[in-house]
Design goal:
By secondary structure, the protein is mostly helical. 67% of the residues lie in helices and 0% in strands. The protein is built from 16 helices and no strands. Helix 12 packs across helix 14 (265-274).
Length: 320
């Protein structure tokens, strides 16, 4: 992948190539939210046939249903029935209109797509990676306990993705806040009290540190200098790799997920370099993620600080 005969190529020349590719990726990112909103509003699945769109739609509907369930319980309804389609649709629309919410659901769908692809191509277990297995067997009781909790959480994530669901308790804190605000905003005057009770209950039962992403972040951060091990997708597994990449490169995790997708390969290469990986290690990640893609000649001349600076000037999609 790396052309060692191109040692004479300057870091600035490589940066120009990557900057152009990154600008192209930024242009693509700018189209994601409006296209997603259009496809989610269109019921003609046969025309688009995209499992990503179906999965995002399913997750949004599942979140909306859980919110309405909580409001119904707050009103004393024990036997929950199907919700009014118009109310459900209105709540889904409110969630889709939130850029961060849409970006997160999209990122989870992409993460699961990558997980399934690597399971099929590399036999990478979607739940128990070699790194997680080692952490479960740690002599440190706290580390082992957190790893066991993550193992269970990762199994639930896999099950939820297969069902195209997104549990409220797995949302990042800011998005849970956005979700309950959407519920409150759509409640009628008669429903306002029930919506308020539902909101309190949801917030009281929520603990971001126990979410899958919270557990991964705590484990990766606790590894200190050893966190480099999590930057190998075949060793860490997709979920931990993506969180480690985000933490080490200073990116939003949803953006780190997006970087693994086609059309964002310059972003992925820069993120891995900004995270401190050597060119040979970056090459190994590309072999796993995109075996048909080669790094540009002279890439090994680009320093991690330069890569981080290029990334920092890039467009931001999640939450923008």
């Amino acid at each position: 992948m790396i052309d060692t005969s191109a040692q004479g190529i300057s870091a600035e020349a490589v940066a120009v190539v990557l900057r152009d590719e990154l600008a192209h990726g930024d242009a693509l990112i700018g189209t994601i939210a409006p296209i997603l909103r259009h496809l989610l509003a269109n019921d003609e699945h046969s025309v688009f046939g995209d499992d990503i769109i179906a999965r995002v739609r399913g997750m949004m509907g599942h979140v909306a249903g859980q919110l309405l369930d909580a409001q119904a319980r707050a009103g004393g309804e024990e036997d929950l029935v199907e919700h009014d389609p118009a109310r459900l649709h209105a709540l889904v629309d409110a969630l889709v209109a939130h850029p961060g919410f849409l970006a997160h659901a999209h990122a989870l769908a992409l993460e699961w797509q990558l997980t399934e692809r690597l399971e099929a191509r590399l036999a990478l277990d979607p739940v128990l990676s070699p790194l997680l297995q080692a952490l479960v067997a740690s002599s440190d009781p706290a580390v082992a306990a957190s790893a066991m909790a993550l193992l269970a959480s990762q199994a639930r994530f896999a099950q939820a993705q297969r069902r195209m669901q997104l549990p409220l308790g797995e949302l990042p804190g800011d998005l849970l806040h956005a979700a309950v605000l959407a519920l409150r905003g759509l409640a009628s005057a008669e429903e306002a009290e029930h919506a308020a009770v539902a909101e309190r209950t949801i917030r009281q039962n929520y603990d971001e540190s126990r979410t899958r992403l919270g557990l991964i972040s705590r484990l990766v951060t606790g590894m200190g200098g050893g966190a480099t091990a999590a930057l190998s997708v075949t060793h860490a597994g997709v979920g931990m790799f993506l969180s480690a990449l985000a933490l080490a490169s200073g990116q939003d995790r949803d953006m780190a997920v997006l970087a693994t997708n086609e059309g964002q390969l310059a972003r992925l290469a820069l993120a891995l370099r900004a995270a401190g990986l050597k060119p040979q290690s970056i090459e190994e990640q590309f072999v796993s993620l995109h075996p048909e893609v080669s790094l540009p000649p002279g890439f090994d001349q680009l320093g991690s600080d330069h890569a981080a600076a290029l990334l920092s000037r890039s467009a931001i999609y999640p939450g923008s």
